Write the structure tokens for this entry.
Amino acid sequence: MICKVKECVNKADVTWALVPVCEAHKQKIIEEQRRYYSKRINEGDRTTLNTIKHLIPWSNR
């Protein structure tokens, strides 16, 4: 399966919130999450997560 992050063509080795992603994008999302919850960035700055948000089953659309 291919990573679901926009314009990525890498193999999806892992998942984030049930969405298949490559390891590099998972790490990027984890870093965005860390920065978001430590109040260093706002919701709009979570660019990687925002590209797959519509695929997360429990996400507000």
Remarks:
- The longest strand covers residues 14-16.
- Residues 23-37 form the longest helix (15 residues).
